[in-house]
Amino acid sequence: MLTVEHVHRRFARVHAVNDISFHVDAGEIFALLGPNGAGKSTLLRMLVGITRPDSGRIVWRSGNATASRLPAEAIGYLPEDRGLYQDQPLIAVLEYFGTLRGLSRQGARAAATAWLERLELGHRLRDKVGSLSKGNQQKVQFAAAVLHRPRFVILDEPFSGLDPLNQEGFLGLVRALRDEGTTVLFSAHQMALVERLADRLFVMQHGREVLSGTIPAVRERWGGGRRLLLHVEQATDEALQAVRAHPAADRVHRHDDGTIEITLTGATPVGALLTHCAAHVTIVDVRTEQPSLHEVYINTVGAVTAPAPTEVAA
Q1: Could you give the domains of the chain?
Q2: Which of 124, 173, 235, 278 stands the most exposed, by the fewest C-beta atoms within 10 Å?
Q3: Binning pLDDT at 50, 70 and 90, where does residue 144 land?
């Protein structure tokens, strides 16, 4: 549904978006990730037409038609910085945003009322926005982005200000949008939530791509990190040395609770390693563990150095 081709965007000496290319398929949940200052928000603003690329192309597809931007009624946008009118009632604010996206006033009010009920704010629809907590204001901002049933939704930090219970609820809401046929692109810093939600991801650092693909694919590309956890009765220093000597063991660490953590080399089968370990320690329990997206992200982003600033001709 969306193709980004070799997009660049500069601000004075800062190359905020540097030769970025990716695509988003219709009906998927796509995560755009990166640390603060990576260029994510600049890229999102170009996707919704707030700013334009210096070079490269952004192409939207709908059936056989293509365009450089989607019509207002086809796209929903939740910005990182909230843009709600603090001194107005919730229902009035949402009705206004709905009409901006092509709904009639009556249709916008009906959709706003339904979303406020869905977000457990129906009893406060006549309260002023400024009287709400940050988390509840985030719910209202989300409703403003989706109440007109857009085909494509961009969510910039959708979990901001939400407690764990409401974060869990938002996971369900985003999945429901996808199941109803909406394509979702979101940016977030909570890797545990991204890992549960995204079909594919794209990681930026210093304006460039550093990693992309499905979560299983990026784990594999990251190169190792799969762990074998052995709970043992007792492990002497000599036994640990023997375990470390096995070619499948990249790193071996003994925890205070008696667990031996073995980081495996590549996609090594664990059978031979377990047999080797059992000859040196008494194994009470065993389990394997994949590296989390948080670990992959930290190791990937942390390994990228910043480019030197360059002068740009006036």
Answers
A1: 2-220 (3.40.50.300), 226-289 (3.30.70.100)
A2: 278
A3: very high
